[in-house]
Amino acid sequence: MIEFDEVRSSILSAIDRLAPAELQSFEALGLVLAADVMSSGPIPPFANTAMDGYAVRAQNTAGAMADAPVRLRVVGELPAGHAPTIPVGDGEAIRIMTGAPMPDGADAIVTVERTERDGVDGVLVRQVAREGDHVRRAGGDVEPGELVFRAGTVLGPAHLGVLASIDVGRVQVFPRARVGVLSTGDELVESGALSPGKIRDANRPMLLALLERAGVEAVNLGIARDDEAVMTATLEDALARCDAVITSGGVSVGDYDYMSATLERIAADDPDERSRVNWYQVAIRPAKPLCFAVVRGRPVFGLPGNPVSSLVSFELFARPALLAMMGRTQCFRTEVTAHAEHAFARKPDGKLHLDRVRVRVEDGRYIVSSVGKQESNTLAATALADGLVLLPDGDGVSEGDDVRVMLLD
Ligand code: AMP
Ligand code: MG
């Protein structure tokens, strides 16, 4: 058996980033910038008011108080989206709405709450305004020529908003990986009534969903029978149209576990000298068997068939590697220290156990409790989990002990 860290490092060292590509900015959520983004103009593009109120000359409000207001003459009204047509002169004010440009002559805004209309053309100002009050200057958010986002930035919703406001419609990013998902096993059917010995394929919808959550483009490759020729043909086809492939099943030591053999065969006629097939017995539970290959320049993750094992090995090995392909530098799930709500018993077996847990926060600390069933096929209990507690080899932990937990989505 090999330690989990060692297997993960070995996989990551075989992963290359995808070649950068230019994409429409609105398609780039979650992707990593491959080049710096500069702004060509200021944001906001012009000085404007942050509040509804009156545009004034600050000096005209000198001495204004709640019970001793200053009267200014209202010479116009300016909603957002309109250009000012007249300036604010001495003793004058323009009624102005949030986002409207500052009219010439005005240097401050008095908020509407500090004013009162006075006749048809007057306003009583009940507070002194200082120059610049409630004025958003041009370039206050982004200056022209500013380096707005560096290469390496992971684009989130706010980044997309900024790109739109500086009119950057296309960005250089590491593209979304296209990742195929293939289930293997003679026992698998898609849906409907079950004839004897058959079960429904749980791994494919789960893995497709895990990929989608990871921001990857998932490709459904269906079910392959336990037959080396069928698997070879399906995998060859997948390798031709995907950046990476994830299979489940067929990596144990059973008589019908053909995945490693299939990959060995594909690797054997791959002229690329970097192609490799590794068949691991990882010192973890669940998810001990794992096949990892690089064939035709593409990584293939042969995950074990038991659904819980499949999920855990996706989280530990496939997800970080796929994120690395997409240019991420922080690829691992967050790990925190938590308080064990009850004892987590286990037996020494040379493995790291990853029990599925529910995580909650109470009084500022994480608390974990088991989801219940911890077998490698009990996916219904695993579905309740939002964390994996890391139980090092030994006899487990007692109630109240500190434990490490990996937070899932
Ligand atoms: P294998 O890794 O192929 O030996 O499969 C291990 C166990 O996982 C067996 O009980 C399989 O029936 C089960 N299994 C394999 N693939 C799937 C799948 N896609 N969905 C649900 N169970 C599966
Ligand atoms: Mg099988």
Provide keyphrases for this structure.
single chain; 409 residues; alpha+beta; 6-stranded mixed sheet; 7 helices; 29 strands; binds adenosine monophosphate; binds magnesium ion
Question: What's the quick description here?
Answer:
The chain has 409 residues and is of the alpha+beta class.
The number of strands is 29
- What does the overall shape look like? elongated
Cofactors, ions, other ligands: adenosine monophosphate, magnesium ion
Q: Uncertain regions: pLDDT < 50 for 5+ in a row?
A: none
Q: Report the average pLDDT across residues.
A: 97
What is the terminal separation in angstroms? 29 Å
- Characterize the largest beta sheet: strand count, sense, and whether it forms a barrel: 6 strands, mixed
**Spatial sequence of strands, sheet with the most strands:** 8-5-7-6-10-9
Output the structural class. Answer: alpha+beta
Helix content: 10-25%
Q: Specify Rg, calculated over alpha carbons.
A: 31 Å
